[in-house]
User: Fold this.
Amino acid sequence: MPRLYGLNIQTVNVSQIIHQKTDEVFPEIVRHYRYLHQHPELSYQEENTARYIVAFLDTEGIPYRSNIGGYGILAWIKGEKSESGKTIAFVADMDALPVQEQNDVEYKSATDGVMHACGHDAQSAALMGAVKIVHSLKSEFAGTALFVFQPGEEKSPGGADLMLKDGVFRDFTPDFIVKQHAYIDLPAGTIGFQSGTIMASADEVHIRVKGQGGHGALPHELNDTVLAASNIVVAMQQLVSRRRNPFNPMVLSLGKFIANGATNVIPDKVTLAGSMRCMDEEERRKMLRLIPQIAESTAAAYGCSCKIDLPDGYPCVISDEVVTEKVCSAAIEFLGEKNVCEFPKRMTADDFGFFTQQYPCCYYRFGVAEENKKPGALHSGTFLIKEEALRTASGTFVFIALQYLTEN
Assistant:
């Protein structure tokens, strides 16, 4: 008969046991979080972060592979009960952002101009806590729990894509993958779910308009690159309004416009850059074909040429409905129905979309705010979580793992 901590699993509330174990490990989770927060590293530069996590895994005696797709790490724990083909994976990001921290805390960033302003320090610390707890329970389940520490979420081409291409799961086949992300619109202790396509694809758009610049008082003797570029900006918005299926949300924002001329000088070149977000992969592919066509023809109308660069971006994030229902039910059982809700779909992006293209997945958000008070905005210098959120983030992962790996 299955037992946890010497207690009969049929007579003891397993969620209470995991809450208790999480409480015991919580000070260590906070310590990990504060270290990672104080020592942030930008995308694809997470060498020290990876070293810190590997040292933790070595101390705990947990097997792993490192340097996957860069500084990525895969740890695994195999249950000691009867053989089972069940496998579940959990993902956390490791990278920080080029943001100057403004918080006045003892563990504030020690690296000038770099900060964990998106909560990836919390994700990694919570996953470390979950690894430790699941490892202590390996005699109680069958199957395998996988733990992915991923670099480079914040910057293309995306650490998720690099890890997949480098064979992160070459020795395992996850039945499904779960990721959680900090959410400032919910208080600590709560989590939110949504299913279907929950976040947009993300593609960068780079356009360089070229022509014969010259004196602004002699426009008939030159090609007005500024006017051509301005009309390309307008044409891109008409692309959104007239060529897009109105039932498929899309945003195309050009936030960079550099025309380095003068009051009476039209420059030879103008640089435009922006981002396209779509909630449908077919619509995304269509728009990536249309953007060069429209930009080139608009530039040509003003006697200019243009070069378009559309580097590979992130696909949509899809939360599988069946998996999400399973994970959400586990969360309700662990946290109580009042602490589980829905979050709205939005046009932000996450490279977890690469995982969702290949495996059934669930992406949910865990609240990090004080009651009735939001922390600083994501990607801002004042972002800071309520540390109590780490208890929920770690414990929920553990409960999901045990529920799936112990069910018949």
Notes: Residues 203-309 form a domain with the Alpha-Beta Plaits fold (CATH 3.30.70.360).
